[in-house]
Specification:
Structural class: alpha/beta
Radius of gyration: 21 Å
Order of helices and strands: EHEHEHHHEEHEHEHEEHHEEEEEHHH
Largest sheet: 7 strands, mixed
CATH architecture of one domain: Alpha-Beta Complex
CATH class of one domain: Alpha Beta
Number of helices: 13
Strand content: 5-15%
Number of strands: 14
Mean pLDDT: 89
CATH topology of one domain: Spore Coat Polysaccharide Biosynthesis Protein SpsA, Chain A
């Protein structure tokens, strides 16, 4: 049995449902679970907003001193810090699961993941790098950004249920109890930088360069979308010094940073690409986009239109109104003030030295 799961709060349940719908259509043999960093008893969702997929609330998986983690982390940090704890819980609760696969909720799976299943039959971990080839400009994101955020994107990770993967998960848990912060000055970007060590510390780790895996705004420079005669989404790339890429089926697309209320934007985290100019449907006025043709990506626009329609059908606007019970007022985050105070003398010293 293969377990697939995601993690989100109630405000992202439209994304989690959309992911689940795509898995049910393409990989019906997978068992899909939503890890919920929230409390259903507090939200009291109406029946029409309760997903048909199993939901596992975070306070039910036995994280030691979970309340302290909630005080320590903001909601983004918390949602990522609990990831290896969920994996460990699934290992223990479903010992007959041969693989556990994590997907961020803002992903759609387009194909049966046969090649991934085969990879996990022989590898303990499967990771995907943000990019497989260099960027050629300094638009965002570029290689320097990936140095800040991690070589691998942990919106996806595949794990076999074996001793090596369990060792990795236990090591990862220890790091994320306290060090799952967004603190670039300290070399931290939630859970991702820790995975840089995985191919070094652990054997049997596959770094998969499949262009159809985890396609997203950060690798659009090397991947291009088309549809074949049967209507299936295909992805192609260019020849590099290390790899020869061919046109192959798109496995899953990661819509990170996409806002269905701003359908003209690919992602709030990037500046490299835009959609071709078209009239704003509401006002009839042209939408402002980059004028250079090389910055326009009409090939991916249908994918984003498809995703938007699925999110709206899954009640995205209603879910977004639910605040997460674990969100604390900013004054609760005392560690942020302490961190700033500790850095103040060093920052003043640096300023003094640079002024000489």
């Amino acid at each position: 049995m293969t377990l697939a799961f995601t993690i989100c709060s109630i405000n992202y349940l439209a994304q989690a449902r959309t992911l689940g719908d795509s898995l049910r259509q393409t990989n019906p043999d997978y068992q899909y679970i939503i890890g919920l960093v929230d409390k259903l008893s507090v939200a009291n969702l109406p029946a029409e907003l309760v997903p048909e997929y199993p939901m596992l609330e975070v306070d039910k998986i036995g994280i030691p001193d979970f309340a302290a983690m909630c005080d320590r982390y903001d909601i983004t940090e918390l949602n990522t810090a609990v990831k290896p704890f969920y994996i460990d819980y699934l290992y223990q609760t479903y010992p007959n699961a041969s693989e556990v696969i994590y997907f961020d909720p803002d992903i759609i799976v387009f194909q049966p993941l046969q090649e991934l299943n085969e990879a996990l039959a022989t590898h303990s971990l499967v990771l995907t790098p943000h990019t497989c080839s260099p960027t050629t400009d300094w638009e965002r994101p570029n290689e320097q950004h990936h140095l800040n955020t991690g070589i691998f994107n942990l919106g996806f990770i595949g794990l076999r249920n074996d001793a090596t993967a369990r060792q990795f998960v236990n090591w990862w848990k220890d790091r994320l109890v306290y060090e799952c912060r967004i603190d670039l000055c300290e070399g931290l970007f939630v859970d991702q930088h820790w995975a840089n060590f995985a191919p070094v510390y652990f054997n049997n780790v596959l770094v998969d360069h499949h262009l159809g895996y985890n396609m997203a705004y950060w690798n659009l420079h090397e991947r291009f979308i088309s549809q074949n005669e049967a209507g299936s989404w295909m992805v192609s790339g260019e020849r590099t010094s290390q790899h020869l890429y061919q046109t192959e089926p798109l496995q899953f697309f990661h819509f990170s940073g996409y806002n269905p209320d701003k359908p003209e934007e690919i992602s709030k985290y990037q500046t490299r690409y835009s959609f071709p100019k078209q009239a704003n449907q509401a006002s009839g006025k042209p939408v402002r986009f980059a004028d250079r043709p090389e910055q326009q990506r009409p090939d991916v626009r249908p994918l984003f239109d498809l995703y938007r329609s699925r999110l709206l059908a899954n009640q995205n606007e209603l879910y977004r109104q639910y605040p997460c019970v674990y969100i604390k007022p900013p004054k609760i985050f005392r560690y942020q003030r302490v961190r700033r105070l500790l850095k103040t003398p060093f920052n003043r010293l640096i300023t003094l030295l640079e002024s000489r």
